[in-house]
Amino acid sequence: xxxxxxxxxxxxxxxxxxxxxxxxxxxxxxxxxxxxxxxxxxxxxxxxxxxxxxxxxxxxxxxxxxxxxxxxxxxxxxxxxxxxxxxxxxxxxxxxxxxxxxxxxxxxxxxxxxxxxxxxxxxxxxxxxxxxxxxxxxxxxxxxxxxxxxxxxxxxxxxxxxxxxxxxxxxxxxxxxxxxxxxxxxxxxxxxxxxxxxxxxxxxxxxxxxxxxxxxxxxxxxxxxxxxxxxxxxxxxxxxxxxxxxxxxxxxxxxxxxxxxxxxxxxxxxxxxxxxxxxxxxxxxxxxxxxxxxxxxxxxxxxxxxxxxxxxxxxxxxxxxxxxxxxxxxxxxxxxxxxxxxxxxxxxxxxxxxxxxxxxxxxxxxxxxxxxxxxxxxxxxxx
Length: 383
Known about the structure:
CATH architecture of the largest domain: 4-Layer Sandwich
Strand content: 15-25%
Helix content: 25-40%
Structural class: alpha+beta
CATH topology of the largest domain: Penicillin V Acylase, Chain A
Distance between the termini: 38 Å
Number of helices: 14
CATH class of the largest domain: Alpha Beta
């Protein structure tokens, strides 16, 4: 195709493009559309303002109450408005009661995480109870009341033809201030003579839990499941002695489970006090599943297979009749792109397409545990 050099840059005139399209017919139109799609994928800012989350390193060899100091100090100016917004979710009359309860609940949490939370409270100057409540926000609202407070998410798994399990994820929260405190964290530990990344995740300042993360064996994402009255959550809190909020379990599994099958087993059987959908992607062909969790066990585990090359989860049981636009659009786009056309870029394109991405989407990310750096450079926080 004829191009001209103008001010040091290659350009193509409109007439040149039109004559080339007329000459090459429908195939030219197809290539042009693919070119436009590539531009939209590779430059998200053309249609949506976005940024990379700031990266932090949490050293697991440090005392737990010191690990998050840098994160707290960097966000000290944003903390008041963020905490005020989250506290509006609860009637002011009950805030002091909840803070009191949260302060006493901290001693029942796994010791390491309890100490991390205590350190965050100390460095931020906020009540310990408020930091505890922030870390169990999901578990407070995950019951059969989706209209009370909406938390939506989309998770997509694709078993591509290149030997990778691509894991796409949108996290939706109707708290815009959370965008300002969204961070990327590499958790490191001394192995031999140097610090190595044990696992990575996306979380929020003041929060030690993970709802999205990966290690060298698998990737995980959490979607809200609305089922059962809130009293069931309370009963499970008592039965589990408050030791299994789902965000802590995900971090535990990323830290301690060394392979895909072990992770599936723990995530399917460990009692939780809130329902959830947990999407897991592995390293090898067929390693991918959606675990539909009740409070006691998995109600269902839907896995990738030879005749099922993708899985999509939003916030509904896949075996029930429902009308969900995010699910429908995701499936149509996957089928339209096809297995051969799925890449990290086309996965991101699906994630940032309406209505998969909406006004309450905080961030999008793509993971492939065979190439861990993809997650870091394919995570976008939306403005």
